[in-house]
Amino acid sequence: MNNPVRVVIAQILAQPSDEENELKRKLNLPLFRLDKIDKSIAPFFLRVDRNGLALHSTAEISPGELRVNFSSLRFRVNNALFKQNLLKAVGARRGRRPKILDATAGLGTDSFLLANAGCSVIAFEANPVVFALLEDGVMRYKQLGIKEEKIVSNLFLKNEDFLSTESVSNEIEVVYLDPMFPSKPKAAQAKKGMAYLQELVGKNNTDAKLFGLATDIARNRVVVKRAKKSPFMSMAKPTLSFKGGSCRFDVYLLNRATLPRIDS
Question: Dihedrals φ, ψ of 144, to 5°?
Answer without folding.
Answer: -75, -25
